[in-house]
Write a structure and sequence with these properties.
This protein has 112 residues and is α+β, with helices and mostly antiparallel strands. 31% of the residues lie in helices and 17% in strands.
Length: 112
């Protein structure tokens, strides 16, 4: 077992864990509940950590984490093709009517 990643919060640790699971790399999150004891221990010891179960998966897992860290965050807005509502660019469904936004995103990229 090897520590692969220290996350800023539990949600980030879960994202990394999901990415590893999709690559068939068994992993586990440690310190899931440690943020409640911040102040009693140094805050850096309370960060959620992602550990790979098999040492042989460490290098491949590290590449997955590097890709995750280097992926730009989508910003901006897209307009829903069904109701016209503005939605954040990283949404897949319109928050107002539930229609898919993938078509809008595809069209925006093909017309540039």
């Amino acid at each position: 077992m090897k520590k692969l990643y220290s996350a800023n919060n539990l949600m980030e640790a879960q994202i990394v864990l999901d990415l590893l699971e999709h690559a068939y790399i068994p992993a586990q999150i440690f310190n899931q509940h440690a943020q409640g004891v911040t102040g009693e221990i140094p805050f850096t010891h309370a960060y959620p950590e992602v550990w790979v179960m098999r040492d042989a998966d460490y290098e491949r897992g590290k590449r997955i984490v590097q890709t995750y860290e280097n992926t730009p965050v989508a910003t901006g807005n897209v307009q829903c093709p069904s109701c016209g509502e503005e939605n954040p660019a990283n949404f897949q469904l319109c928050w107002k009517c539930g229609s898919g936004l993938e078509i809008t995103r595809y069209l925006d990229h093909t017309h540039k």
